Amino acid sequence: MTNPSEEPAWKQRAVERSIKTAKLRAAQRVQRFLDAAQAIIIEKGSTDFTVQEVVDRSRQSLRSFYLQFDGKHELLLALFEDALSRSADQIRAATESHTDPLERLQVAVQLLYEASRPDPTAKRPLFTDFAPRLLVTHPAEVKVAHAPLLALLTELMEAAHDAGKLRNTINPKRVAAMTMQTVMFIAQSSGGPDDATMHPITAEEVWDFCSRGFVA
Protein backbone atom coordinates (compact mmCIF):
# COMPACT_ATOMS: atom_id res chain seq x y z
CA MET A 1 0.00 0.00 0.00
CA THR A 2 1.05 3.59 -0.57
CA ASN A 3 2.02 5.48 2.53
CA PRO A 4 -0.69 8.15 3.09
CA SER A 5 2.02 10.70 3.89
CA GLU A 6 3.63 10.28 0.46
CA GLU A 7 2.65 12.58 -2.40
CA PRO A 8 1.09 10.89 -5.44
CA ALA A 9 3.62 10.12 -8.18
CA TRP A 10 1.92 12.49 -10.65
CA LYS A 11 2.19 15.32 -8.14
CA GLN A 12 5.87 14.63 -7.48
CA ARG A 13 6.56 14.70 -11.22
CA ALA A 14 4.68 17.99 -11.60
CA VAL A 15 6.65 19.56 -8.75
CA GLU A 16 9.95 18.31 -10.16
CA ARG A 17 9.14 19.77 -13.59
CA SER A 18 8.19 23.06 -11.99
CA ILE A 19 11.43 23.22 -10.00
CA LYS A 20 13.49 22.31 -13.06
CA THR A 21 11.82 25.05 -15.11
CA ALA A 22 12.31 27.62 -12.33
CA LYS A 23 16.01 26.74 -12.04
CA LEU A 24 16.48 27.06 -15.78
CA ARG A 25 14.82 30.47 -15.88
CA ALA A 26 16.87 31.66 -12.90
CA ALA A 27 20.07 30.52 -14.61
CA GLN A 28 19.06 32.40 -17.76
CA ARG A 29 18.37 35.57 -15.76
CA VAL A 30 21.73 35.30 -14.03
CA GLN A 31 23.52 34.85 -17.34
CA ARG A 32 21.83 37.93 -18.81
CA PHE A 33 23.02 40.00 -15.85
CA LEU A 34 26.56 38.60 -16.21
CA ASP A 35 26.60 39.28 -19.96
CA ALA A 36 25.35 42.83 -19.40
CA ALA A 37 27.96 43.55 -16.74
CA GLN A 38 30.73 42.09 -18.89
CA ALA A 39 29.69 44.25 -21.85
CA ILE A 40 29.74 47.38 -19.68
CA ILE A 41 33.17 46.50 -18.26
CA ILE A 42 34.56 46.06 -21.77
CA GLU A 43 33.08 49.39 -22.91
CA LYS A 44 34.30 51.37 -19.90
CA GLY A 45 37.55 49.52 -19.31
CA SER A 46 36.77 49.50 -15.60
CA THR A 47 34.44 48.07 -12.97
CA ASP A 48 33.06 51.54 -12.29
CA PHE A 49 29.40 50.97 -13.07
CA THR A 50 26.11 50.90 -11.19
CA VAL A 51 23.65 48.09 -10.62
CA GLN A 52 21.04 50.15 -12.46
CA GLU A 53 23.25 50.24 -15.56
CA VAL A 54 23.46 46.45 -15.51
CA VAL A 55 19.71 46.14 -15.02
CA ASP A 56 19.02 48.51 -17.92
CA ARG A 57 21.47 46.73 -20.22
CA SER A 58 20.03 43.31 -19.38
CA ARG A 59 16.45 44.58 -19.86
CA GLN A 60 15.41 42.99 -16.61
CA SER A 61 14.08 44.42 -13.37
CA LEU A 62 15.93 45.68 -10.31
CA ARG A 63 13.87 43.28 -8.23
CA SER A 64 15.04 40.40 -10.39
CA PHE A 65 18.66 41.47 -9.91
CA TYR A 66 18.40 41.41 -6.13
CA LEU A 67 16.73 38.01 -6.25
CA GLN A 68 19.91 36.70 -7.89
CA PHE A 69 22.65 38.82 -6.27
CA ASP A 70 23.17 40.57 -2.94
CA GLY A 71 24.66 43.51 -4.78
CA LYS A 72 27.41 44.67 -7.11
CA HIS A 73 30.16 42.91 -5.15
CA GLU A 74 28.53 39.52 -5.60
CA LEU A 75 28.02 40.21 -9.31
CA LEU A 76 31.71 41.06 -9.76
CA LEU A 77 32.67 37.99 -7.75
CA ALA A 78 30.56 35.81 -10.04
CA LEU A 79 32.31 37.29 -13.09
CA PHE A 80 35.72 36.76 -11.47
CA GLU A 81 34.94 33.14 -10.58
CA ASP A 82 33.64 32.50 -14.08
CA ALA A 83 36.78 33.97 -15.66
CA LEU A 84 39.08 31.81 -13.52
CA SER A 85 37.01 28.72 -14.24
CA ARG A 86 37.26 29.35 -17.99
CA SER A 87 41.01 29.92 -17.63
CA ALA A 88 41.36 26.54 -15.91
CA ASP A 89 39.39 24.89 -18.73
CA GLN A 90 41.61 26.49 -21.37
CA ILE A 91 44.81 25.41 -19.60
CA ARG A 92 43.48 21.87 -19.18
CA ALA A 93 42.65 21.70 -22.88
CA ALA A 94 46.18 22.82 -23.77
CA THR A 95 47.75 20.09 -21.62
CA GLU A 96 45.75 17.29 -23.22
CA SER A 97 47.93 17.21 -26.33
CA HIS A 98 50.83 15.98 -24.17
CA THR A 99 51.15 12.45 -22.83
CA ASP A 100 54.06 12.85 -20.42
CA PRO A 101 52.71 13.88 -16.97
CA LEU A 102 55.63 16.20 -16.27
CA GLU A 103 55.25 17.92 -19.64
CA ARG A 104 51.55 18.45 -18.93
CA LEU A 105 52.42 20.04 -15.59
CA GLN A 106 55.03 22.25 -17.24
CA VAL A 107 52.56 23.44 -19.88
CA ALA A 108 50.01 24.28 -17.18
CA VAL A 109 52.49 26.25 -15.08
CA GLN A 110 53.79 28.22 -18.05
CA LEU A 111 50.31 29.02 -19.36
CA LEU A 112 49.16 30.08 -15.90
CA TYR A 113 52.09 32.49 -15.76
CA GLU A 114 51.35 33.95 -19.19
CA ALA A 115 47.64 34.29 -18.42
CA SER A 116 48.35 36.03 -15.10
CA ARG A 117 50.76 38.67 -16.43
CA PRO A 118 49.48 42.25 -16.75
CA ASP A 119 48.73 43.08 -20.37
CA PRO A 120 48.78 46.83 -21.16
CA THR A 121 46.90 46.22 -24.41
CA ALA A 122 44.12 44.19 -22.78
CA LYS A 123 41.68 45.84 -20.42
CA ARG A 124 41.06 43.30 -17.66
CA PRO A 125 39.78 45.36 -14.72
CA LEU A 126 38.41 42.27 -12.98
CA PHE A 127 42.02 41.20 -12.48
CA THR A 128 43.77 44.56 -12.24
CA ASP A 129 41.20 46.42 -10.10
CA PHE A 130 38.76 44.03 -8.45
CA ALA A 131 41.01 41.06 -7.64
CA PRO A 132 43.65 42.99 -5.61
CA ARG A 133 40.91 44.61 -3.50
CA LEU A 134 39.19 41.28 -3.06
CA LEU A 135 42.41 39.69 -1.82
CA VAL A 136 42.63 42.26 0.97
CA THR A 137 38.96 42.44 1.95
CA HIS A 138 37.68 38.92 1.23
CA PRO A 139 40.59 36.43 1.15
CA ALA A 140 38.24 33.46 1.64
CA GLU A 141 36.36 34.41 -1.53
CA VAL A 142 39.63 34.60 -3.45
CA LYS A 143 40.46 31.08 -2.31
CA VAL A 144 37.11 29.79 -3.54
CA ALA A 145 37.48 31.59 -6.88
CA HIS A 146 40.88 29.98 -7.49
CA ALA A 147 39.61 26.48 -6.64
CA PRO A 148 39.33 25.32 -10.30
CA LEU A 149 42.93 26.31 -11.01
CA LEU A 150 44.18 24.67 -7.83
CA ALA A 151 42.21 21.51 -8.59
CA LEU A 152 43.80 21.33 -12.05
CA LEU A 153 47.36 21.85 -10.78
CA THR A 154 46.79 19.32 -7.99
CA GLU A 155 45.53 16.75 -10.50
CA LEU A 156 48.55 17.28 -12.75
CA MET A 157 50.96 17.29 -9.80
CA GLU A 158 49.51 14.01 -8.50
CA ALA A 159 49.77 12.41 -11.95
CA ALA A 160 53.42 13.42 -12.26
CA HIS A 161 54.07 12.20 -8.70
CA ASP A 162 52.44 8.83 -9.40
CA ALA A 163 54.56 8.50 -12.54
CA GLY A 164 57.72 8.88 -10.46
CA LYS A 165 58.59 12.26 -11.97
CA LEU A 166 58.54 14.13 -8.64
CA ARG A 167 60.32 13.69 -5.33
CA ASN A 168 58.70 11.02 -3.16
CA THR A 169 58.70 13.24 -0.08
CA ILE A 170 56.42 15.98 -1.43
CA ASN A 171 52.71 16.44 -0.79
CA PRO A 172 51.28 17.08 -4.30
CA LYS A 173 48.32 19.16 -3.12
CA ARG A 174 50.41 21.43 -0.90
CA VAL A 175 53.07 21.83 -3.56
CA ALA A 176 50.39 22.61 -6.16
CA ALA A 177 49.03 25.38 -3.91
CA MET A 178 52.49 26.86 -3.33
CA THR A 179 53.30 26.65 -7.04
CA MET A 180 50.08 28.39 -8.05
CA GLN A 181 50.64 31.23 -5.58
CA THR A 182 54.29 31.63 -6.57
CA VAL A 183 53.56 31.68 -10.31
CA MET A 184 50.72 34.19 -9.99
CA PHE A 185 52.70 36.46 -7.65
CA ILE A 186 55.68 36.55 -10.02
CA ALA A 187 53.36 37.24 -12.96
CA GLN A 188 51.42 40.02 -11.26
CA SER A 189 54.61 41.66 -9.97
CA SER A 190 56.06 42.07 -13.45
CA GLY A 191 54.19 45.21 -14.44
CA GLY A 192 56.32 47.94 -12.87
CA PRO A 193 58.72 50.30 -14.69
CA ASP A 194 61.95 48.50 -13.79
CA ASP A 195 64.46 46.02 -15.12
CA ALA A 196 61.90 43.22 -14.86
CA THR A 197 59.77 45.11 -17.35
CA MET A 198 62.62 45.86 -19.74
CA HIS A 199 63.82 42.25 -19.50
CA PRO A 200 60.71 40.36 -18.39
CA ILE A 201 60.89 37.02 -16.66
CA THR A 202 59.92 34.29 -19.08
CA ALA A 203 57.54 31.39 -18.54
CA GLU A 204 60.50 29.03 -18.99
CA GLU A 205 62.38 30.75 -16.15
CA VAL A 206 59.34 30.49 -13.90
CA TRP A 207 59.00 26.77 -14.59
CA ASP A 208 62.72 26.21 -14.02
CA PHE A 209 62.54 28.06 -10.69
CA CYS A 210 59.42 26.29 -9.43
CA SER A 211 60.24 22.82 -10.71
CA ARG A 212 63.52 22.72 -8.78
CA GLY A 213 61.41 22.43 -5.65
CA PHE A 214 59.60 19.24 -6.61
CA VAL A 215 61.03 17.48 -9.71
CA ALA A 216 62.94 14.28 -8.95
TrEMBL record:
Residues 27-87 form the HTH tetR-type domain. The keyword Transcription applies. The keyword Oxidoreductase does not apply. PROSITE patterns: HTH_TETR_2 (PS50977). InterPro entries: Homeodomain-like_sf, HTH-type_TetR-like_transc_reg, HTH_TetR, Tet_transcr_reg_TetR-rel_C_sf. Keywords: DNA-binding, Transcription, Transcription regulation. GO terms for molecular function: DNA-binding transcription factor activity; transcription cis-regulatory region binding. Residues 50-69 bind DNA. It comes from the Bacteria. Pfam families: TetR_N. PANTHER family: HTH-TYPE TRANSCRIPTIONAL REGULATOR BETI (PTHR30055:SF234), HTH-TYPE TRANSCRIPTIONAL REGULATOR RUTR (PTHR30055). This is TetR family transcriptional regulator. The lineage of its organism: Bacteria, Bacillati, Actinomycetota, Actinomycetes, Mycobacteriales.
